[in-house]
Design brief:
Elements lengths: L1 E6 L5 H15 L3 E6 L13 E6 L12 H6 L9 E8 L8 H12 L3 E10 L5 H19 L3 H12 L4 H13 L2 E3 L13 E3 L3
Parallel strand pairs: 1-2, 1-3, 3-4, 4-5
Antiparallel strand pairs: 6-7
Length: 203
């Protein structure tokens, strides 16, 4: 599965969140590409199965200037069905915390993006282990949403990956199922074979 992570960061906290998500997506076998929003063309998001967008909020209520060009380019292309999830660091004590996320997500919804209904927000100075773990959980849940995987299958495979005994097998299986759809035929309890052929694309 191809995952894009785009972000802008002022103090470095949103960048840390982006790196956490990147590491998590790589750990579960995704093909990950990460870039700052001020250097990426928005239409490249159509090449990915899922995009994560991370922002800080300028002056408590405004879009950061680094994201302005990205914001303007959204209206130039039809993005129907492109999946995106948002995250960001900000002042959670403000009446409108991480307002920039909602400014950008509203614009993306208007032009066809399929936006994940959960947003991961963390306080601008919070980098605790607990916060990192919550960020990883958010990334996992967004991946399940974006790939339409069965939840139990995802976590079963993820548990395999966490066991050194099965890591190599789990990784090779993930790559095979992503890159090479496998056709199979099953045998019924009665004599003969099924006439139906199924195609496995994901675990």
């Amino acid at each position: 599965m191809k995952v894009f992570i785009g972000y802008v960061s002022l103090s470095g906290n949103t960048e840390k969140m982006a790196i956490n998500i990147k590491n998590r997506m790589k750990a579960v076998g995704c093909d990950v590409y990460m870039e700052r929003l001020d250097t990426v063309e928005v239409d490249t998001l159509k090449e990915f199965d899922l995009a994560f967008i991370g922002l800080y909020t300028w002056n408590h209520e405004d879009l950061p200037y680094e994201a302005n060009e990205f914001y303007e380019e959204i209206s130039q292309v039809d993005f129907h069905g492109v999946k995106v999830a948002f995250f960001g660091a900000g002042d959670l004590n403000h009446p409108k915390p991480c307002a920039a996320i909602h400014i950008l997500s509203d614009k993306m919804k208007e032009y066809g993006f399929d936006v994940y209904d959960r947003v991961w927000k963390t306080h601008q100075e919070s980098t605790t282990h607990d916060e990192i773990r919550k960020c990883e959980v958010f990334a996992d849940q967004a991946l399940i949403w974006g790939s339409k995987r069965k939840k139990w299958r995802f976590f079963l495979w993820n548990r395999m990956l966490g066991n050194p005994k099965y890591q190599k097998s789990a990784y090779l299986l993930r790559r095979a199922l992503d890159d090479y759809p496998i056709k199979y035929k099953g045998r019924s309890k009665k004599r003969g074979t099924y006439t139906r052929t199924s195609e496995i694309r994901d675990i």
